[in-house]
Amino acid sequence: MSTQTHPDIRPGRLNPDEYLRRFSDANPRMTVAQALLEAERCLYCFDAPCASACPTHIDVPSFIRRIADANLRGAARTILDSNPMGGMCARVCPTEVLCEQVCVRNTQEGKPVAIGRLQRHAVDAVLSESATALFTRAPSTGKRIAIVGAGPAGLTCAHTLARLGHTVVMFDARPKAGGLNEYGLATYKTPEGFAQHELAWLLSIGGIEVRNNWKLASAAQLAALQHEFDAVFLGLGLAGTHQLGIPGESFSGVQDAVDFIAALRQSSDLAALPIGRRVVVIGGGMTAVDAAVQAKLLGAQKVDMVYRRGAQHMPASQAEQDWAQTRGVTIRHWLAPLEILGRDGKARAVRFEHQDLIDGKLTPTGEFEEIEVDMVLKAIGQQMLSSVLAEAGVALTGGRIATADDGATSLAGIWAGGDCRAGGLDLTVEAVAHGKQSAQAMHAQLMRA
Question: How far is CA 289 from CA 11, 75, 316, in A?
């Protein structure tokens, strides 16, 4: 192995134009002609399986028919009435395992209608215009609702409640609202500030105030919200990250993938971001893919994404895995990290042990391997910081908030949704569905009071 003592981590590995090219929109919007041709492929099924497979139950045949009729405003209204974050979901939703997987064209011919791209085509057309608003607020109900967390679940809940005539105050720990959409997605998926553009549209309904840099840090704060507001929604997301729990984790050059992605998302100059020449990403989910691909795009020469099980066990979809591999990322399987090796306080290699699946149990083989690194990005999952909620008496399941189907928690007047809710899929589109369900349940209860 090399005796190099100084990790090669530095900014400016590419020329400025190359950064712009590499981080441009990964899936540009369809042209009008492309959208019309694709819309014509839809069979407009009765009781369409694509609509049932969508967590927000968008009437897919209806909006595609409107695109075919050149009625983009009508198409967008159909989408956004069911899913207020239809623009973001069209960009990041794993349509290949949801609506497009069950598309009749896919089951019969192996090529689904491009539902996600058509959805984006319609929503983008309307969000970019300054025409009359698609939705308006109902008369004021006089009710005030607090929402903690301005991510997809919280924003959807806020928009739905505002449409119903309620006044909403959102509290968020970050300097900007948007949650995962603003801080946690690959830049090439949502370039040109789309997260904030969509946020502006959501807030344009009126009746929503956002208070940033406010963190839920005590049970007393939650009790105060219960006292001041008629209802509370918790869309806290997963603020904590799992640690590897191995020696060397504190070395320079080792960081959480979510922090790496957030820094990239908020950077005004990608050339100023330091990246290692050799990067190892530990994990097998979509966060690992986003981190690995963006490390490569920033100029890393060698990027290994390492997972302890096989390809079929990876949380990242096959489409995401293919995306990483076609962008120069090497995916290594059946390797579990044992130790991060360092010199002078800096990471220089990761020592792994090969794994095998014996009688359904992951088992070390006794065979070891070292991969030289300059940087290590940890992407082994996130967790909710639940101590405050436990102190407040909120029932938890597996470290997340236990709820009824409509999002109601064990505490009267408090609902929850998104990644912090137990038993979910950790998908943006599901968080949207949770926010909408809870808003409708809150409205029904508040109007009975």
Answer: 21, 32, 7
Alpha-carbon gap, residue 345 to 94, rounded angstroms: 40
Percent of the chain with pLDDT over 70: 98
Task: Tell me the per-residue pLDDT of 22-69, one tens digit each, with 9 for 90 and over.
Answer: 999 988 899 999 999 999 999 999 999 999 999 999 999 999 999 999
Domains, the chain, ranges and CATH? 32-127 (1.10.1060.10), 144-239+384-448 (3.50.50.60), 242-381 (3.50.50.60)
- What is the number of other CB atoms lying within 10 angstroms of the CB of residue 303? 28
- Nearest of 244, 263, 247, 254 to residue 373 by alpha carbon: 254
Whole-number Å distance between alpha carbons of 329 and 349? 18
Retrieve residue 424's tokens: 């979910």
Specify the DSSP class assigned to residue 140: P
**Claim: this prediction has a pTM higher than 0.85:** yes
